[in-house]
Write a structure and sequence with these properties.
two-stranded antiparallel ribbon, SH3 type barrels, globular, alpha+beta, Cytochrome Bc1 Complex, Chain D, domain 2, 7 strands, 9 helices
Length: 258
């Protein structure tokens, strides 16, 4: 057998031996980052909170820059472990490593698209926020009242569905950490407000005017904890449909540090 023929046969064998490996590697790489596969997983597992196409629901809109997720690795970590202190759960058990990466790839594609707002106008919503006195109870970027939750990054934590419900039915979307209590002293007027602090003997309440009341429990004839109570009024009849759209559009732009 000639030297040239031996070289050709040897090369052919190497090609046949290595081809399946190379083909398998290419296929794995493609499927592990396939956006279409990731979208199917997202629709089944994530759209419940983040809405179809990531447009937002009880969870935030995923288009544009996100506060917690900036890279594929960080998105994988969030899907796997959740975000402590938020409603974002861990999918460590529910998804395989491959499915997690596929879903993360799809989410990353959403973050690279422009932020999609709802039907309202954010600029008009910002003016409406001021004119309706929302700033007297809520803080945005260090300015405002402290009776209600801070809203500086509310658009990065909540979607339009939740935001609208919180405006028209505030008791239905009760924020954690703002338990409403009603204290009735043995003598004197009752005090209703948000619980600031409580121990075995004392309770501190901030009423609707922002005044703090520190009360000794032994002096109370009754102490009620309103698990679904709220100090925020409903704006369902105070604002028109388009005005609600505008206010929600503005709140959706509040995503914390720029």
């Amino acid at each position: 057998m000639s030297r040239r023929l031996r070289v050709l046969l040897h090369s052919s064998c190497l090609t046949l031996f290595l081809a399946p490996v190379a083909f398998g590697q290419t296929r794995t790489a493609a499927t592990s980052t396939d956006p279409a596969a990731g979208q199917r997983i997202f629709d089944a597992q994530c759209a419940w909170c983040h809405g179809n196409g990531g447009d937002g629901g009880t969870g935030p809109n995923l288009h544009g820059k996100l506060r917690h997720a900036t890279t594929l690795a960080s998105i994988v970590d969030i899907i796997t472990n959740g975000i402590p202190g938020t409603d974002m759960p861990s999918f460590r058990v529910g998804l395989t490593e491959r499915s997690t990466r596929q879903a993360a790839t799809y989410v990353l594609s959403l973050t690279r698209a422009p932020l999609r707002s709802g039907r309202g106008n954010a600029e008009r919503g910002a003016a409406l926020y001021q004119s309706t006195g929302c700033g007297s109870c809520h803080v945005v970027e260090g300015r405002g009242g402290i009776l209600g939750p801070e809203l500086t990054d509310i658009g990065g934590r909540r979607g339009g569905v939740y935001l609208r419900e919180a405006i028209v039915k505030p008791a239905a979307s009760h924020p954690p950490g703002f338990l409403v209590v009603r204290a009735v002293p043995a003598s004197g007027a009752e005090i209703r407000g948000v619980r600031v602090n409580e121990d075995v003997f004392w309770i501190t309440i901030r009423d609707a005017s922002g005044t703090l009341h520190t009360l000794q429990k032994s002096d109370l004839s009754r102490l009620d904890r309103e698990l679904e109570g709220t100090l925020m009024p409903s704006y369902e009849s105070r604002l028109s449909g388009p005005q609600l759209d505008d206010l929600v559009a503005y709140l959706a732009t509040l995503r914390g540090a720029k």
